[in-house]
Design brief:
orotidine-5'-phosphate decarboxylase activity; decarboxylase; globular; TIM Barrel; Orotidine 5'-phosphate decarboxylase; 291 residues; alpha/beta
Length: 291
């Protein structure tokens, strides 16, 4: 594998992610410590079990995936000690040289949104990874505090756009007063934020890998976004090469395929996890970068 171009740690998130995807493959590994998965790994459902699980995943996949995506809810359910584990994971990932996308799906208005942005995007905050998932369904403009702070600190956002849950279509496929679908308007707003950025902007979208014809049905122009497209649902949730090509079409090179259960099921041994991540990364590269 050829080495990625050198990218400064001060470069915007989009540029750093593009380099990581070129170097390690377009794979993001989720850190989703479900109770059942902790049990399968022989770990207690406690902050100590959470820490063992999280740091084991990090050790296994650092250098073999473009990014790590801890799901904040599984840390928050353990209270302050769980959040301390999330803070440690984010710091350890930074030291290991792998990008982190904190999957918290925050979305609110005014000073509350500003406070969420401060917690997850401010320099010096222990919860601030390299990017954050956010929800735009109080209006894309409500994300302004997060968009502005992410831009000023070189971090990224992944904005929910077309999700794979059945209930999502009732909002995302709905039309605005000008006849544009909500999903298409979210994508267009992200594209506006990314205008002129190379090789990728830092405002990405979350688009489920199993949404089928949703992008076409909603007239959502994914190729015009000029930002990364985080695609949950790869592997254990059913999406393979054919589904990725079908959903993303000409936007495939911007896709960061996200796999959680497909990699985590190979634990608890580090070598097994690493082998699963390497295989998933190769499959994502073949599906998204070939041809």
């Amino acid at each position: 594998m050829s080495a990625a171009p050198l990218v400064s740690s001060d470069a915007p998130f989009g540029a750093r992610l593009a380099a990581a995807m070129d170097d390690h493959g377009p794979l993001c590994v989720g850190v989703d410590p479900h109770v059942s998965l902790l049990q399968q790994w022989g770990l207690p459902d406690s902050p100590d079990g959470l820490r063992d699980f999280s740091l084991r995943v990090l050790e296994a996949v650092a250098g073999h995936a473009a990014a790590l995506k801890p799901q904040a809810a599984f840390f928050e359910r353990h209270g302050s000690r769980g959040l301390a584990v999330l803070e440690e994971l984010v710091a350890s990932a930074r030291d290991a040289g792998i990008l982190t996308i904190v999957d918290a799906k925050r979305g609110d208005i005014g000073s509350t949104m500003a406070a969420y942005a401060d917690a997850f995007l401010r320099d010096g905050s222990p919860l601030a990874g390299d990017a954050l998932t956010v929800s735009p369904f109080l209006g894309f403009g409500s994300l302004a505090p997060a968009l502005d702070l992410a831009a000023s600190t070189g971090r990224g956002l992944f904005v929910l756009c077309l999700t794979s849950n059945p209930e999502g279509a009732s909002v995302q496929h709905a039309t605005t007063t000008d006849g544009t679908t909500v999903a298409a308007s979210v994508a267009a707003a992200a594209a506006q934020r990314n205008a002129g950025a190379t090789p990728l902007g830092s405002v990405g979208l979350v688009v489920g890998a199993t949404v089928g014809e949703a992008a076409t049905a909603t007239a959502t122009d994914l190729a015009a976004v000029n930002g990364p497209l985080l695609a949950p649902g790869v592997g254990a949730q059913g999406a393979g090469a054919a589904e990725l090509r079908h959903v993303f079409g000409d936007a495939r090179r911007a896709v960061l395929a996200s796999s959680s259960r497909g990699v985590l099921a190979a634990g608890p041994e580090i070598l097994g996890l690493r082998a699963a991540a390497v295989a998933a990364s190769a499959q994502a590269r073949d599906a998204l970068r070939a041809g």
